[in-house]
Structure formats: structure tokens, C-alpha cells
Design a protein that fits this description.
By secondary structure, the chain is mostly beta strands. It is 13% helix and 39% strand. Strand 3 and strand 4 form a beta hairpin. The protein is elongated and about 95 Å long.
């Protein structure tokens, strides 16, 4: 009876097993790097916060602005603001950010939206939007543009919003 062995308890084994700390650490570092890369590459250029218009904004003119609405695939309404953006300056424009201000019938602000201007490509069977970085506007040229709004306040007066250029990137 001196040779009796003590029974193993649940969670124990004859040989102590070590947790695989090295692979766990490498996995955590990889996840942090992937998340950091996603945040870095998905951020857009910060709009100007000084309240002053971008110096190159005076060289950009919006024209022929038209509002239209369409129903999306889930039954909601999408509003498009289509028009033409003309670059009358001496640099190629590769990004334009704007702030749209919507007002009610009393002239009060009911909604503000900040977004990037997208180029409108109508060469295919359906209109498509492209980032201005992929379709820059050369000096002295114009390009059809589209701003897409998923929601606009019900109190909006249905007039075209005020457009303020907040950021411009040039080459």
C-alpha cells in the first residue's frame, strides 16, 4: 500500500503544461498592427477647423446644382446633389471636402453635413461615383460631381443647401 499514487485532480496532468505565451503575444501584436493600419489608411484628410476658407477654394466653382431623390434597396430615400465643379486655378485638384448647411422655412439651420466631393462618371450604363484622387480635376477643367445624402431633416425647406468648401488637396 505504500505504492499508492495520489489520483490526478481535474485540470492537472502528470507533466505541467505551459501556456503558449509567445504565439499569443505575436497574435496580439499582429491584431494591433492590423487595426492601426486600418485606422491610418481609412481616415480622410481633416477639414479646416480655422473657420477661414481654404486659400484654393476661391478657384473652385460649383454650377448647375440639382437635387434629386431615389429609393435605395432597403426602401429608404437617398438624396443626390449633382452638379459641376470647375477648377479655375493653376493646380490639379485631387480632393475637396465641403460642409452642407440645410435650413428650414424660417432660415434656421436644421442640419449640417460634412463630406468629400465625389466625381460622377456617367460613361457606363449607370452613373457611378469615383473619388477625386482617382479622377482629379486639372487646371481650367470641369468635372461632374455628386454628393450623396442618406438622411435629411424632415424640417428642411427643400431648397439647395449652402455649400462651404472646408478642405482642398492639390498636386
Amino acid at each position: 500500500m505504500a505504492d499508492e499514487q495520489e489520483p490526478l485532480r481535474l485540470g492537472q496532468s502528470g507533466d505541467e503544461e505551459r501556456a503558449p505565451w509567445a504565439p499569443i503575444g505575436i497574435g496580439v501584436v499582429l491584431i494591433v498592427l492590423v487595426i492601426g493600419a486600418l485606422i491610418f489608411f481609412s481616415r480622410s484628410e481633416a477639414p479646416s477647423t480655422s473657420g477661414e476658407p481654404h486659400p484654393y477654394a476661391a478657384s473652385l466653382k460649383f454650377a448647375d446644382l440639382k437635387l434629386s431623390t431615389a429609393e435605395n434597396f432597403v426602401g429608404g430615400s437617398v438624396t443626390y446633389l449633382d452638379g459641376t465643379l470647375t477648377n479655375s486655378g493653376d493646380k490639379t485638384v485631387s480632393n475637396v471636402s465641403v460642409e452642407l448647411t440645410f435650413r428650414n422655412t424660417l432660415g434656421e439651420v436644421v442640419q449640417k453635413e460634412s463630406m468629400r466631393v465625389m466625381a460622377l462618371d456617367e460613361s457606363g450604363p449607370y452613373p457611378d461615383i469615383r473619388d477625386l484622387r482617382a479622377a482629379p480635376i486639372a487646371p481650367g477643367k470641369s468635372r461632374p460631381i455628386r454628393l450623396t445624402l442618406e438622411h435629411i431633416s424632415a424640417d428642411w425647406n427643400r431648397a439647395a443647401p449652402d455649400i462651404k468648401i472646408t478642405n482642398v488637396s492639390t498636386k
